[in-house]
Amino acid sequence: MRAAFASRFDDADPLAALTVGERPEPTHPADDWVTVQLRATSLNHHDLWSLRGVGLTEAQLPMILGCDAVGVDPEGNQVVVYPVVVTRGDPRGVSILSEHFPGTLAERVAVPRSNLVPLPDGMAATDAACLPTAWLTAWRMLTTKGRVEDADSVLVQGAGGGVATAAVALAVAMGKRVYATSRDAIKRERITALGATAVEPGARLPERVDVVIETVGAATFEHSMKSAAPMARIVVSGATAGHEPSVNLRRIFAMQLEILGTSMGTPGELYELLAFCADSDVRPVVDSVVPFSRVEDAFARLHSGDAFGKVVVDHTA
Ligand SMILES: NC(=O)c1ccc[n+]([C@@H]2O[C@H](COP(=O)([O-])OP(=O)(O)OC[C@H]3O[C@@H](n4cnc5c(N)ncnc54)[C@H](OP(=O)(O)O)[C@@H]3O)[C@@H](O)[C@H]2O)c1
After folding, report:
1. DSSP 8-state code for residue 11
2. What is the rounded CA–CA span in Å between residue 304 and residue 176?
3. Cα 218 to ligand 1 centre (Å)
4. 143-155 pLDDT, tens per residue?
5. Burial tier of 277 (Cβ tally within 10 Å: 0-12, 13-18, 19+)
6. Which residues does residue 117 pair with via DSSP β-bridges, in sequence order?
7. Is the Cβ–Cβ distance between 142 and 164 less than 8 Å?
8. What is the pTM of this model?
9. pLDDT value, residue 281
10. Where is the Enoyl reductase (ER) domain (predicted)?
11. Does the C-beta of 50 come closer than 6 Å to ligand 1?
């Protein structure tokens, strides 16, 4: 079957490590696994990390990329794939598709049957394909970790990103005052259209916020700390621009800040997110939909840093 996979690692030029070609059909590591025929996937920064060699070893190559998926199960049902799989030998106890098990940028993927969630009526496959990774991460950052129900205001760093646009759209839909930083004036305009107050990175906010959504890392972390109100939660799920910021411990204890790490979400949280989107007008912010035949263009778009929202791959086009 056709697939997009990491054939080697290239830290400086991850796109050069991407290969599109034939891979063997999925196999089932256990009896409860099924094969899903894919309809749509979306890219994540995770796919670029994999091409750089972050989280994979040479022994795992070639590895089919892709964490997100919407497809058709063996009984013909449209399903959203929850991408976290119990993985013996991984220190986390789990892994995300494309880490230990082949990912979703292919014609078909194998997953445990319990990872399949019904696609809500009326939701497009290309929208739902944005939800299982970036949107699920943003949902958990806001709800379970950030306890946003007790918050009036939220700051989202690096607002053009997949997780970040999700956090803005969700927090606005929850009725919060949302501030978002972006280095790019056009992205700031677009984030304003989503209902946030957009500012340049590092700019002083009109108020200190109760929840900070951090996926950028070293480039923005000091601003996140300075923008946090007493008792605020700074929730971290990524470090695109460096993972070793300096942290002012005095500010943490004096302001009683919480710095919380999180990764992905639970199946229950994915159900909650799908229900929230299905019951409201909230839909993923989609930068572009690219046919699988041009999957390299989709990677180039993500890598350019120009994308606003999710880059989706349509496997049916
Ligand atoms: N832990 C998890 O479960 C999980 C799940 C999903 C994602 N992640 C992580 O979260 C991060 C974001 O993922 P994504 O898929 O949303 O990525 P993405 O769509 O590629 O977004 C990255 C965003 O980061 C900002 N950025 C990049 N370099 C920057 C710099 N030097 N200074 C300031 N801002 C910078 C940019 O915002 P502007 O251009 O608007 O400034 C960009 O839009 C990644 O590190 C990813 O690995 C983790």
Report:
1. S
2. 31
3. 12
4. 999 999 999 999 9
5. buried
6. 80
7. no
8. 0.96
9. 80
10. 13-313
11. no
Q: Does any ligand 1 atom lie closer than 6 A to the CB of residue 201? A: yes
Query: By the 8 A CB rule, do 271 and 131 touch?
Result: no
Name the residue with tokens 């677009």: 190
Distance of CA 149 to the CA centre of its chain: 22
180 CB under 6 A from ligand 1?
no
φ and ψ at residue 286, rounded to 5 degrees: -105, 120
Helix (H, G, I), strand (E, B) or coil at 251: helix
Compute, in angstroms, the gap from residue 175 CA to the centroid of ligand 1: 24
Binned at pLDDT 50, 70 and 90, residue 317 comes out as confident
Per residue in 20-60, pLDDT (tens digit) is: 999 999 999 999 999 999 999 999 999 999 999 999 999 99
Whole-angstrom distance, CA of residue 299 vs CA of residue 166? 20
* 238 CB within 6 A, ligand 1: yes
CA 285 to centroid of ligand 1, rounded, Å: 15
Kindly give the distance from the C-alpha atom of residue 33 to the centroid of ligand 1, in angstroms, as a whole number.
Answer: 32
User: Domains (ranges, CATH) in the chain?
Assistant: 2-130+284-314 (3.90.180.10), 134-261 (3.90.180.10)
Output the six-digit token pair for 41.
Answer: 């996937």
For the chain, give the percent of residues with pLDDT over 90: 97
Q: Is the CB of 137 under 6 A from ligand 1?
A: yes
Q: Which residues lie across from 304 on neighbouring strands?
A: none
Output helix, strand, coil percentages for the chain, rounded to the nearest 5: 30, 25, 40
- Full DSSP string of 35-59: EEEEEEEE--HHHHHHHHTTT--GG
For 199-229, the three-class secondary structure string (H helix, E strand, C coil) is: ECCCCCCCCCEEEEEECCCCCCHHHHHHCEE
